[in-house]
């Protein structure tokens, strides 16, 4: 991971802790190490996890370290997307009623995240486990992609977990969260 500028112990541990906090408190933005999308991917991926990414550098480093089980997005356990067009959430694995944990986790690289509504960003309002009432999260993604996130999590316990990562922060919409509304500023 040093090839990506990530400390292989401290950086991935910090990213994993930020990810756990974001998944357990949907809609909150958590501080993470620099280049959080790479750090989250590094924390989740090993040679037993099918992984898809459109980031050539990340793919190279994981392959060099013997941690890459390359896959297409539709068959991947973890998908890393620097461009939302790389992944069609309708095609991603959603698990089953017996094994809902077989659903995919999609990590989006985004330029901006914010708690609450923010001008210029699409905002989702969430409810469900880990949310006190409702929580709003603003993400620099097209509204259509956030609609796909909402649809991909609408068959709980099956579904897709979505993680959003900037240079130094992460937020999540796990499949257990309900997207109550979507607003585009």
- How large is the share of residues in beta strands? 25-35%
Computed structural class: alpha/beta
Distance between the termini: 37 Å
- In total, the number of strands is 11
Largest sheet: 7 strands, mixed
What strand order characterises the main sheet? 1-10-9-5-4-2-3
Q: How large, in whole angstroms, is the Cα Rg?
A: 15 Å
Q: So what's the overall shape?
A: globular
So how many helices?
Answer: 4
Q: What do the pLDDT scores average to?
A: 93
Architecture overview:
- The chain is of the alpha/beta class.
- It is built from 4 helices and 11 strands.
- The protein has a 7-stranded mixed sheet, with helices on one face.
- Strand 2, helix 3 and strand 3 form a beta-alpha-beta unit.
- Helix 1 crosses helix 2.
- It is globular and about 45 Å long.
- The termini are far apart.
- The model has no long low-confidence stretch (mean pLDDT about 95).
Key terms:
single chain, 185 residues, alpha/beta, seven-stranded mixed beta sheet, four-stranded antiparallel beta sheet, 4 helices, 11 strands, 23% helix, globular
């Amino acid at each position: 991971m040093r090839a990506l500028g990530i400390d292989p112990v401290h950086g991935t541990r910090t990213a994993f802790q930020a990810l756990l906090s974001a998944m357990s408190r949907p809609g909150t933005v958590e501080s993470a190490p620099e280049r959080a999308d790479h750090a989250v991917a590094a924390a989740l991926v090993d040679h037993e996890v099918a992984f898809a990414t459109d980031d050539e550098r990340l793919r190279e480093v994981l392959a060099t370290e013997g941690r890459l089980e390359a896959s297409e997005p539709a068959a991947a356990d973890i998908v890393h997307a620097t461009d939302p067009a790389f992944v069609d959430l309708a095609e991603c694995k959603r698990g089953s009623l017996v094994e809902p944990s077989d659903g995919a986790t999609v990590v989006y690289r985004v330029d901006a995240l914010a708690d609450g509504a923010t001008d210029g960003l699409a905002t989702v309002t969430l409810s469900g486990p880990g949310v006190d009432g409702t929580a709003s999260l603003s993400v620099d993604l097209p509204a259509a992609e956030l609609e796909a996130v909402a649809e991909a999590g609408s068959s709980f316990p099956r579904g897709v977990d979505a993680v959003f990562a900037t240079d130094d922060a992460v937020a999540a919409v796990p499949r257990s969260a309900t997207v109550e509304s979507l607003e585009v500023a």
